[in-house]
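Aim 2, interim progress. The first record below pairs a target sequence with its structure tokens.
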Amino acid sequence: MVERAQSMGLANFRLVILKGKAYVQTYWHSFQSRDIFTLWGILQLLRRYPGRIPDLDMMFNCGDLPIVHSSAFSGPNATSPPPVFNYNKDSTTLDIIFPDWAFWGWPEIDIKPWVPLLNDLKEGNTREKWVDREPYAYWKGNPSVSRNRRDLFKCKTSFFHDWKARLYAQNWKRASRRGYKKSNLADQCTHRYKIYIEGAAWSVSQKYILACDSMTLLVKPRFYDFFARGLIPRHHYWPIRDDNKCRSIKFAVEWGNSHPEEAQEIGKTGSKFIQEELKMEYVYDFMFHALNEYAKLLKYEPTIPPGATELCSESMVCQANGLAQEFMIESMVKGPVDSSPCTMPPPYDPSSLSSFLQRNTNSTKEVELLENQNKHP
């Protein structure tokens, strides 16, 4: 079943862990260095918890979109879906969620590994008090990757309308190194509100936007990564309609400016979630539990695939150069940790899960009702 992901063209690489060592068989390289830094992150997990990751055989897709569609594996003659790891999924796909590559650095656009970047973002939050920030919603990114983002750019200020949004296009493929510096994430906590909107699928920018203690205006998402389902509307973020973005954003900004204490609290709660619940140690622990639970499902003994090469941190560092090498050194796990991984809580029972999801739905509907009434609570 695992090998079917290769024959169906669903995976960038196959990774086998055997007796604590990692072996990779690359089918096709990902965009930029996503595959390299994903493999690097798994190697750091093996260094952090040596001997504690069981033998396993996994396929990984590094694209934006989840790729295992449930509709392709339904019906009386359907085959079982191949297990493929990915960075995100939606309700129509069966990909296995895994933390994204950027936790260990994104050299192509000069984004640091998560630990030093999180410190920079924390410091950036202190440079300007919330009340002194620009009383508008801010977004900077590439609008050309999806219709959803192109639609957002209809909310740019014009002679006829001020939708209270300050939007800036950034084409990462064409940006110079100077352009990256001007896009330093720690320098972007200058507005009271920051917009998160998906690109082709989920966007890696979500954690960076939430880490500013500006109130996040989260345009209704379709996709989710490994932590997003823990976010609660009107607690960690303010929900924005996807079918009427401009008016929804304008209402959110005006509501926040007239309810500054509540808006600040939402911003701080979202930032606190990222700072405390998304610590690098917890990212590793999620990886640890995901791979351990996955390995339990294998019904065969993994073997090294033909043509696979062994990976080790030292050789990857030596083969890298520039920022990629710098980020690898900066994010390298120095050695085993004395502590054990966190204990996973039991899964939600159906009733509790339904109740949690319904509370989130109700909270979003309350915001939509306020918008429709076009008056403050």
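The second target in this work package is listed in the same format:
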Amino acid sequence: MKKLDCIGDVHGCYDELIELFTKLGYSTTGKVPRHPEGRIPVFVGDLTDRGPASLDVIRLVYRMVVVEKMAKYVPGNHCNKLYRFFKGNPVKHKHGLETTVAEYEALSKDEQRIVKDQFITLYEESPLYLEDPEANVVIAHAGIREDMIGKSFQNKKVRTFVLYGDVTGEFDENGMPVRRDWAADYEGGQWIVYGHTPVREPRFKHKTVNIDTGCVFGGALTCFRLPEEEIRSVPSKQPEVPEKFRSFDD
């Protein structure tokens, strides 16, 4: 059976990513981390922004997914915004994008061209969400409702849900978007692995798991392994920002 290692929101936390691969049993001595059993890493979006080394994360994931074809990736909302920036669209440099742009603008013109081309290729060649029947899993950045699985990636409602979650259009007292708890209503038989909303511990609800444990906010970087259904995490090296974590009344 196919063995997957689903990795939550990295947000430029390159050192923690390498540490996580080491903890998972990957060899990190070559150009890309490799597992002796051929396990497949799957990145659950939001590779960049806020953390200290977003461009190093782009370079590594591009090599693993596009060049070596030994990993998978689905984009998150921050990935979508960076893609639009690289394509020349007007986007506001805030909510973390400013850190990635600062890294980018510090490069030479040749280095800028290379990393921009790498990310655009990575983004354009990857699916909005990944459905893997063999592993009995759907991997989507902010999650996906059961009735949306299998629908076209061009469907605007599906795209919005997968990138941003089940948003209401309202904001809470901390300025964070209010999102409905779609996982509470999930009744499907496939695992849904997602991130996007930082939680203190991986949140299991029915057959869903949120593995964004807020590494960039001082939490941890987390992996959910299939078929073992096991969690592995490494602690963050970043300062703690407690107000960024969400709690649920489970």
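Helices lie at 14-23, 54-67, 77-86, 97-105, 109-124, 156-164. This observation will shape the mutagenesis plan for the next reporting period.
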